[in-house]
Amino acid sequence: MFNINQKPPIYDPEAVQPMRDELTYVGFEELLTPEKAKEVFSGNQDKTIFLVINSVCGCAAGSARPAATLALQHSVIPDKFVTAFAGQDRDAVDFIRENILGDYPPSSPSMALIKNGKVIYFLPRHRIEGRYAEEIAEELTKVFEQHCSNKGPSIPKEKYDKLVSAKACGSKIPLA
C-alpha cells in the first residue's frame, strides 16, 4: 500500500479501487511510486506514452476514465499507457507534475501524450468537465492518429464490452 516514507493517501483506498480498476482493465500500468514513474519516463525511447492522472472527481473523472478507455479501442493507440492517482499515489503524482508536466498547472483528472520525455498533447480538467466521454475519446483518437503508430485496440472488443465505468460524485447530496 504505502510506507512511512510516502505521503499517505487522502482517499479511502477501497473506495477508489473501482476507479483504478477501470483503467488497469484496459491495460494501463499504475505508477505508484516516483521511482516507477522515473523508470517509465526515462526509458521512453521514441515511444508514445499516454498518461492519465486519475481522480475521484465525479464531474470530470466520470468522463475522463471512460474516454481514456474508449480511445484505447481505436485502431491506432500509444505504445504504453500509464496512470497515477491524485490523492492516492501522491509522491508519484508530485514527481510526474514536477518532472514531466512542469509546464502545465496541476490538474486532476488530466491526460497527456508524451514522447521522449516531452509532452506533445495535454488535456486538463477544465477541458474534460462538462463533456461526454465520446467527445473526449474522439479528440484523443485524433491525437493518437497524428502521433502514434501502435496497433489497437488495447483489449478485445468482447472484453471491453464487459467494462463497467465507476460512477461516484459527492455533488449528488440532496439539498433538503
Task: Give a description of the structure.
The protein is of the alpha/beta class. 36% of the residues lie in helices and 18% in strands. The protein has helices at 13-24, 34-42, 58-71, 90-99, 133-147, 157-160; strands at 29-30, 48-54, 76-77, 80-85, 110-115, 118-123, 150-151. The strands form 2 sheets. Strands 1-4-2-5-6 form a 5-stranded mixed sheet, sandwiched between helices. A two-stranded antiparallel sheet has the order 3-7. The relative contact order is 0.22.
Task: List the SSEs and their pairings.
Elements: H1 13-24, E1 29-30, H2 34-42, E2 48-54, H3 58-71, E3 76-77, E4 80-85, H4 90-99, E5 110-115, E6 118-123, H5 133-147, E7 150-151, H6 157-160
Parallel strand pairs: 1-4, 2-4
Antiparallel strand pairs: 2-5, 3-7, 5-6
Largest sheet: 5 strands, mixed
What is the spatial order of strands in the main beta sheet? 1-4-2-5-6
Please give the count of helices: 6
Report the radius of gyration as a whole number of Å: 15 Å
- Mean pLDDT, as a whole number? 89
Give the terminus-to-terminus CA distance.
Answer: 38 Å
Compressed to H and E, one letter per element, the order equals HEHEHEEHEEHEH
What is the number of strand segments?
7
Helix fraction, binned, reads 25-40%
Strand content: 15-25%
Q: Show unreliable segments.
A: 170-176
Q: SS-based structural class?
A: alpha/beta
The rough form would be described as: globular
